[in-house]
Amino acid sequence: MYIRIINNVKRFIELDGEELNFFTSLLSTRKYKRKEMLLRNGEVSKYELFIINGCVKNYTIDNNGFEHISMFAIEDWWTGDIASFVTRTPTVFNIEALEDTEVLQISKSDLELLLDKIPKFEKFFRILYQRSLTTYIERNNQNISFTAEQRYLTFIKKYPKFELRISQKNIASYLGITPEFLSVLRKKLNS
């Protein structure tokens, strides 16, 4: 059960057996059915989540009831709402399982304990958060300056596995376009 997360961590830091055992002792497993909510708008994010199996979407809903997907997460990805998790304030996001999903989760207090006992994890989470911030900045820039076609081409190039697992409606929401326009765009690119 822990092989995937251990390999994820070992990409950036080396741990001995005792450190690995301590780390995994702080994790708990949770399973979600398709369409089940991992986090709802207004709740405080209690965990950082690592996807063992499955796929989730992080999204908000605007005043007109439209869904705006900010990210997807699949196996070997971390997800959650870092702002809510760190500040202990209610989230504006929803996280929903798009497939049956299993996660490993770590609470804020256990994460703090981990960082105190094994300082190497400071480096790991710094790198994780830096990569997340970089991705957020790139995506924000693309939303401002790219055409819908450029956003779609960037999406399928960067996340080739997603198109096979995620509905056209969800991909369109992520790209900020309608499913109908995405269908037209796909036909144009495939001709």
Sum this structure up briefly:
The chain has 191 residues and is of the alpha+beta class.
In sequence order, what are the helices and strands, one letter per element?
A: HHEEEEEEHEEHHHHHH
Question: What's the CATH architecture of the largest domain?
Answer: Sandwich
Oligomer: single chain
Count of helices?
A: 9
Q: What percent of residues adopt helix (DSSP H or I)? A: 40-55%
Instruction: Provide the CATH superfamily of the largest domain.
Output: Jelly Rolls
Rg measurement, Å: 18 Å
- Uncertain segments are none
What structural class should be given to the helix and strand makeup? alpha+beta
Which strand order spans the largest sheet, edge to edge or round the barrel? Answer: 1-8-3-6
CATH class identity of the largest domain: Mainly Beta
- Principal-axis shape equals globular
Named CATH topology of the largest domain: Jelly Rolls
Q: Provide mean pLDDT, rounded.
A: 95
Count of extended strands: 8
Largest sheet: 4 strands, antiparallel
